[in-house]
Predict the structure of 2-octaprenyl-6-methoxyphenyl hydroxylase.
Amino acid sequence: MSEHADVLIVGGGPVGALAALRLARQGRSVMLLEARAKDAEVRDARALALSWHSRRLLEEAGAWAADLPATAIDTVHVSQQGSCGRTRLDREDLDLPHLGAVVDYPALVAGLGGALEQAGVQVRWQCRVTAVKSLSQYACAEVETPDGSLLLTGSLLVLAEGGALAETLPGIRRLTHDYHQCAVLAEVETELPPQGVAYERFAHDGPFALLPHGERYMLVWTRSQADAERLAAADEAVLRDELQQAFGERQGRILSVGPRATFPLALRQASQVTSGRVALIGNAAQTMHPVAAQGLNLGLRDAVGLADALEGAADAGDARALKRYAASRKLDSRAVVGFTHGLIKLFDGHHPLMNRLRGVGMTALDTLPALRRKFAGHLVFGVRG
């Protein structure tokens, strides 16, 4: 049994869903393939830091409702433990209402689900893609469903998830770097309310972010694998005390730390983002370290870049259009991945001289308005040629 659509999209997360909405707006038939069941609870502890630009892209697609529970980010405060120097980025630097917003992953997925339904996008639930292939006139996906195997075809196949599937395609290999680290996630209550300030702190035991999350913060702390396991199993007071020591008194006392979750961290980047009639976006194209919170924002720009490149193409798998997509995303992807990876290397180690040099660099960025605005613009809008 075979079914056909102009575009098959593998992965119904935020990046795949946004691509589906943008491509359906062009009048294309889109089939979105998602492994989970339609009514299954989305169990994901992540709070996502989205740039103002990403929020606008989701709003344009009808996926950011006025009542979506989100917390605004107006200021980002960057510092390092045990040394002077800091950088403060404000919404006024870019003349924006906000720099970004923090939203829980399940809430964002629910908003996108409603937008997909309203747009009439066909979503095939409980579809696990086992193989993909690109032929001269179409691409195909082998799918396992509760009712058996299925062969689906499309003029274009988009991988928004499934980096391992991409490795089976000609010309694509994944470059991988295992950080041997985990991210520890927990909700944190401080004595003072967030008031729109997000903190990025390069601490001795690993960088962490405190993202405003309602009246509390969401902690994302990079630790060694052993440390992450220890903190996940320890009493609340252990993590609270270690965080207080690393963060200081900027928000007063840390009053409580909620349940913890951990995620392993690795960098994975595809050597190219197209192969025949297959295009890669989001996590299929690159998976990044969470420092600077750029991964999802980059993936959403992939989705929009693909749709923009295909605008006006009669064939969704047109080689020239896919070449335009690959060229348009090259600079942004390499710059953001390189910047994120470089931050981890730059702040690895705490020799007094290196601490002082990093402090001088952050102070210079903070005191040069033109440089600060350019840096903030790259974080919010991406790197554009």
The mean pLDDT is 93.
